[in-house]
Amino acid sequence: MKCAVIGLGEFGRPLALKLASQGAEVIAVDANMDIIDDVKNDVSLAVKLDATDEKDLRSQGIDKVDVLIAAMGGSFEANALVVVLAKQLGVPRVIARATNNTHARILKLIGADEIIQPEETSAELLAHRLLFSALKNYFELIPGYSIMEIEVFKKLVGKTLAEILPRQKSNVNCIAIKKRHQIGLDSDKFHETINIVPKGSDVLENGDIVALTGADKDIAQFLEETGVK
Question: What is the mean pLDDT of the chain?
Answer without folding.
Answer: 87
